[in-house]
Structures are given as structure tokens and as C-alpha cells.
Amino acid sequence: MRWLVGWSSIAAHFGTVGAVDSLGDLDDGGTITPVGSQLLWGDPDPLWAVGDWRPDEVRVVSVDPFNRLAVLGCCGATDDELRLGIVAARGGALRHLTAWPGSYTAVAQIGRRITIAGDLAGARPVFHTPWAGGTAYATAALPLADLIEAQLDVGHLAALLACPETPEALRDSTPYEGVKRIPPGHALILREGSREITGYEPVASLAVAAPQRDPEHAVRDVKDALVEAVRTRLTAPRHAPETPLPDPGPVPGMGPADRRAARGAPLPGIGADLSGGSASATLALLAAGLPGAPGTVLGHGTGAGERLLAVTFNDLTTGGRDDAELERAGLIAENPRLHHVVVAGGAEALPYADLDGPLTDEPGPALVGAARHKRRLAAGSADHLTGAGARQVLDAHPARLADLLLDRRRRHLLHPVTELARSELARSEGASAFSLFSLFVPLTVYRAARRLARTPYRTGMEDAAARLPAANRAAPTNGYGGPVDASLAALTWSRPGPAARWLTGEALAQVSQRLHAAATRPTSVQRPGEARARAALARYAADHRVFEQAAEIRSQRLHAPFLDNQVVRACRELPEALRVQPDARAEVLRTVLAGTGIHDLPPGWGATSRATYAAADRAGLRSAVGELVSLFDAPLLADAGLVEARVVRKALRAAADGEPVPLDGLADLVSTELWLRRLLSRRGTCWTGTAAPRRRAVAGGVIPRPKLST
Fold first, then answer.
1. Nearest by Cα to 468 from 412, 440, 508
2. Residue bearing the bigger pLDDT, 410 or 4
3. What is the CA radius of gyration of the chain?
4. Which residue in 217, 339, 534, 571 has the fewest CB atoms around it within 10 Å?
5. CB neighbours (10 Å) of residue 9?
6. Bond preceding residue 125 cis, omega within 30 of 0
């Protein structure tokens, strides 16, 4: 795990000259520093980079000793452009610090003013906490929890399970009491210990509709942003992976690449996922068609003209294999610039098959399938492109139908609701195309969209808060759900998460109080569709960050260009009328590839296969049900008052027997329980020095029960 940490205080000498104990008192007997850190600049407001950062991923430029900028991550800006960023930040143009291609965190020091800019999606968050009369900040929450010896925030865990896509329930909290997160699209500004959180992106108004961009120009901007994002990765210096174990020599049936993957070391160079989906295929084809930089300093890689390593995962388990998707991946891999590798996985690669793993910064559903993904990524390259986030930034959230009604563009609802009716009919056995059902679905969806468009934000939050305490008494529904059911559930200001049905009434009541409080707080007016789409993107980006940490392979970097700031901005400019059309994502990416000269795409381009993921989840749960039931014999979640162990064990057995149980909700519960156990079994701290905190996070290993106000 890689992170940066620093602080700002009123003290003239802070941290690197005189150490600070856990109460903030100066102690000249030692120095408090992060373990394994690299000092980027020192007192009075020090900044460290911690972890296995590559040399080119840590850049510090300055115009004078009092004005400097640190950029950590993959950034396509030149040093001169970074210096211009310092001048822009001095004048208050914070958005300029987030406008370069790539994925990175920028920290600007202008005199004693420190500015840390978060990203738009939330994949590179910024955390902060009061400490020693000032403010400490980091790109990971656990180090700050160590610094202040924080207790668990059980209320945050309850909100994360009950309403994961409702930022009003989560607010700025983290799993650690006292450690806060800045929202996506905001920057943290520190002035001698005082802090301010400000947004750097314009917010759409509910009263006045924004002018609609021409679709052709909007798609062209998406193409330019994606090409620049991929080119930034290609032109970055290449690194040869460090092999943790020596090569055992020739093994019958295994080549050098197979032996390297078995040792857990990726190949040198750059590669990409090739799942057969449109997002990963677009990135693979773009990367294969763009010229790269020369190889590593040690001579690895072939530079321009090299073949891109494309990795496809082939699930051999019953029901988890999509032959059409594999066929599409094979047709795309016929490109002579691609070197195709198929990684097969059987029962040992199912979700829940291996529940051991590293401690991540926060809980996330990726913990139950990390071993499955590591098997695929180990066969990849040192720099590996993924299509993560494409659905969240390109597809239309169902709530955007309400935005169309607000803009009085009712005719644009015709195609999406007709497609919903057609898809629902296709999954209904024996349904007639002329049945009344085909007329009932568009009317139902239209009425739900109109209801959301006419519901004020405060009323929507109050209604959601009133309904939430009864979420665990809701009638069982099909675990997979149909497209119409999913769309109707999303046409609201807030909806319970899939795990809410198993939470205790006490936990749901606490989250309900959070929603009631959110309804009374002043907030920026946003259109419901845009607000819900941004919330869904933020939730996905947070889960993707957990995935990166859980499936991390030494010397490998995962790149998700669709979550880059510039790509997110370009996608947000797509007209809503274009977004809501059926297969909009596939058509946009087809146009992107056509703009770069790639026209020959396989049949079925853009088809989705989410049902195969559910089949793999159910097969993995069925295989590991005994271990999972044992996990919930005495769960920590029950000690915290969030669930009843008996209820969860019953749900696990029901899911293993094939009953219609929301599998993603069970994955949330299992991953949170795993994360709690790893956290409480952890020893040590992220800090060193005579005045360093001597206890781990969650002081004393005690899980507090949620407290309800009367």
C-alpha cells in the first residue's frame, strides 16, 4: 500500500525537529515519522511519501523555497506545467491542479498554506484529522487512525452496510472515529493548522438547465481524454518487476512467463485486461495502437512497436463461463499488436475460496474475491490497464430519467423505457409481445421518474429515513432482480443497500437518524439524476481502491483510465439524452475507436454478461458455506450490534441452497467481518520514534456498540 502523509500546525518546529507525542506536546527526545517513509519536504509543515513508490511517481517542483508542488502518481504534466500549477494554486485556481492527464494526488505548499486536491471520482481520496493543535492529512485513513489511536466508528460501518450509495448517510466519516474524508471533487486547504474544505468543480443548478452540448463534440472530447490517459501510461518510464523468489528453472509444461506468474511476479512492460467487454477492449486496442516509450532503464521491453499483453480470465466452473465473451476476446486478440494470454481458473479461483489476505484501509466487497483477481493479475504486466469505472462514468443512472423530465424532454424517455419493457419481456417465460405488460412497464417507469422529479431533496431524504428502519422486515425478493425492478429502485433520492435486510433494528435506526439530520442541513442544489450518478461513482471508486489494495501484487500498478479526472470530466459533458439510450456505452466507445482508426469490431460488441458473475458468486458461496457459517458463529459484527449471527447464518445456508438471496449483500457482510478480524488481529503502528503512538488503531481492541439518541 502506498500513501502520503503530512500535517500543518501553528508550531514553528513540528515533527521533524521536535517530535510530538500522541497528545501533541513537543518532545525533543525523539522524532515521529512514518515507517518506511521518504521525506519530500520538512518543517514546519512536513510531507512524506510512504510505501513502494517508483522514482517517477514522486515528483517535487518548486519556484522558490516557499512555493512548491508535490505530485504523486501517474501524471502526464511536464515540470514546466507543474510550475505553472504552483502559480495557479497561488492565485486560488485549484481546478488547475486536477486538469493534467493521469491519476495522481497533488499537494501544493504556498507559504504556510497547504492545499491537497482530491480527485473527481474518489479513487484517490484525502483524509484528515485534528492532531497536536493542528491538522494531519493523508491519502489513507489507517495511518491517521494509528496516529490518534482511534476507536472504530460503528455508525459508519452501519451506514456503509445500510446505504452504501447514499453520501448523506456516510457524510465525511470513515471507519475510524475522528478521521474524516473530503468529498470527491473537493480540496483540503490548511493554514497553520486551521482547515477548510472547498469544491473546485461547478455544481449544476436545479432551477436552470445547463446548455446541452452537441453529442458529436462531447464524444470527441471523451475520445481525446481517453487517448491522452492511455498515452500517459505508455510514455511513463517502464520498470522491471522485482521477483520475490528465484526462478526454479525449467518446469515441464511451463514457460518463463508461466513460472513468473506462479511466483507472483508480473511481466515487464505494459498490458491490459481483455475480458471481451467493450471497456477493457477499448483500452487494449488504444494501447496497442499508440506508440510507447523505450523500455526500462535495464533494457526490458521493446518500446515502440511492442506487443501489448492482453489477459483474459476463463472461468472453468459450471455456470461461470461466458463462451460468447471469450469468443469476442479471441477475435479482438487477433490484432497483431496484441499478445493474448488466457488464464484458466477452476474451483480454487471462485469467490470465497481463499479468505486470507492483507489488511486494507477500509472494508469492501473485493475482499471476498481478491484471490480470484490476483490469479488473473499475476499473469499481467508491471503496468496493467483495466476498464474499471466505465459503466459508472458512461452509462446513465436510472435517476437521470427524472432530469430529462425536469428539462421537459419527455420524448427522450421513449427509447429507454421501451428497451426496459423489451428486456423484461425477454426474461419472462411465455410472455406475449402484445400483452398489457409491455404497456404497463413504460407507464410505471415514467410515473416513478416523474415522482422523483417532483420530490424535493429534503422530502426525499425524510421519506428514505422513514422507510429505512423497516428494511430488515421487507419481503424477500429475487436476488438477481430484473432491469425494471432495478430501475424503479434507483428512481429515488436514497435506497437501502442489499445488506440492509440483515441489519438489526438498532443499527437501521441509527442510520435513519443520519438521513434525518442530512435532510435538515443546507446543501447545494443538485438535479436528482446527476446527484445519484455521482454518488454511485464515488461508491464504486471507493470499492475499487479497496480492490487495488486487496489484490495488490508487488511491482505491479493497476491503471483505471476511466477514473481519471479528465476522462470523468469529459464523460460528464455527454448529453443526458445520449446517455439514456440503449447500448449508449458501447456506441460511445465504438465511436471513440473509430476516431482512432479502429473499425473492425467483433459481433456482439458491447454485450454484458453480469449474470455469469452472479453464477460464480453463488458457486463460490456454495463451496465455502461451511467456512462462512463458522465465520459467523461469533461474529464481530454481532458484538458491535449490527447483525444477529443467527440471521446471517440462515441467509448463508439459504443462498447456498439456491434461494433468491441478494448475493452482493452477503458479500458486503462477509467482507466487513473479514476486515474487522484482520484489523483487530493487527499489531504495531504506522509510526516510529520515541514519541510515536504505541498502540494500534482501535485502541484496546474494543468494538463499541452503536449509541442511539432519544
1. 508
2. 4
3. 25
4. 217
5. 23
6. no
The rounded distance, in Å, linking the Cα atoms of 214 and 259 is: 51
For 134, residues 6+ apart whose C-beta sits below 8 A from its C-beta are: 7, 8, 9, 10, 11, 14, 190, 192, 193
Q: What is the pLDDT of residues 447-464, one digit of tens each?
A: 899 999 999 999 999 999
Residue in the block written with cell 483500452: 283
Residue 468 near residue 162, CB atoms below 8 Å? yes
Distance CA 297, CA 316 (A): 39
Closest CA relative to residue 352, chosen from 668, 551, 620 = 620
CA separation for the pair 118, 347 (Å, rounded): 40
Listed residue (550, 569, 570, 567) closest to 558, CA to CA:
550
Which 8-state DSSP code applies to residue 359? P
Question: Residue 161 corresponds to which amino acid?
Answer: L
Classify strands 67-75 and 58-64 as parallel, antiparallel or unpaired: antiparallel
Which cell is 525 given? 442544489
Whole-Å CA distances, 90 to 77, 108, 114, 117, 201: 18, 9, 10, 14, 18
DSSP 566-622: HHHHHHHTS-HHHHTSTTHHHHHHHHHHHHTT-----TTTT---HHHHHHHHHHHHH
Quick one: cell of 14? 513540528
Tell me the C-alpha distance between 140 and 131, whole Å: 16
The answer to whether residues 601 and 593 touch, using CB atoms and an 8 Å cutoff, is yes
Q: How far is CA 71 from the centre of its chain?
A: 20
d(CA 287, CA 423): 34
pLDDT, one tens digit per residue, over 244-272 is: 555 656 656 556 656 566 666 788 889 99
